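Q: Predict the assembly, please.
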Amino acid sequence: SQKIEQNSEALNIQEGKTATLTCNYTNYSPAYLQWYRQDPGRGPVFLLLIRENEKEKRKERLKVTFDTTLKQSLFHITASQPADSATYLCALVNQAGTALIFGKGTTLSVSS
Amino acid sequence: DAGVIQSPRHEVTEMGQEVTLRCKPISGHDYLFWYRQTMMRGLELLIYFNNNVPIDDSGMPEDRFSAKMPNASFSTLKIQPSEPRDSAVYFCASTTEGGTYNEQFFGPGTRLTVL
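A: Predicted assembly structure:
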């Protein structure tokens, strides 16, 4: 079955630095991957979608890469701010195309 | 638009009781998803509907769980009887044509505690 892993449960960085979060998957090749942000007590909020034929996607200070050879996506936040502190989830569509499989998330803390 | 609306936001019940969670998707969205989130297992899809019809319920853990969507603006997730291991945050999400290929809009969730 498809598996998705986010490399660490928690990441602590200083304001202004670049945060890099990793999402690895096994057992198949998804057509696309999504990243969501989740704040405590709230539902996830969609950030970006990247397709298998796209190497990189940007949105303001966010950048996502998708390496289908390594079976890995990297999520970067440049010039990080304390307001970026949240849990970030990656999600892949399953092979049947019927559901999103979510990773457990990485909790990012940005200190000032 | 008000976004996806869920009620109640918190529910505390005793083992064996029936629990009903409610969801109103965003108007015009034709896909509705029910998820469960726990620390151990993360966010798991339970069931999803397209045009009010259940499409995939393979994530529903047991027969104690059931979901309905009687019309385009309302869905329920029912647990009967509830057990302590059902304690989790339950999210409803909706999206437009394209189903899982489009961004999903999540509600605020219902935190369920079964004593």
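Chain A has no helices and eleven strands. Chain A touches chain B at residues 31-32, 34, 41-46, 49, 89, 93, 97-105 (CB under 8 Å).
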